[in-house]
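Tokens help. Our protein:
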Amino acid sequence: MQSLYRYFARNMRGKKGQSGFTLIELLVVVTILGVLAAIVTLSLVGLTTNAQAKACEQEYKTVQAGLDAYMANNNVDSVTGTGLAGTADMTNPVVLYNKTPSATSPTYVRNSPTHWAYVWDGTGRITAINQASGGPAVPPGCTVSGG
């Protein structure tokens, strides 16, 4: 029994100068890394769709704020509404954006054209967001919020 113990003790220590990992240790590490990679991947799956919807909502709020500022600055209660298709042109039917820096009327939205086409009624409330001609589709979850 004693000799068997010495045999295993001597072989478990390895030879002098021997270094490295056993196959079992490497398999355990690779398995742990695979599980961690799977967890991270699953947590990132829906982030791009959610980010597109948030960007759409922020642009909608910017255009709505531009319409509100236009109406307040010009002291009007109504504006020219857009048709059912809407508009991505922030210079027509209401001038919300000026392309020229020397224009006399102010700029109400920072950038134009927008990614999507907006439909608003005569009171200046955006009622719908549509896909602009040649533009990206409106992401799911991007809807017009109330008032």
Observations:
- The beta strands are 116-120, 126-131.
- The chain has three helices and two strands.
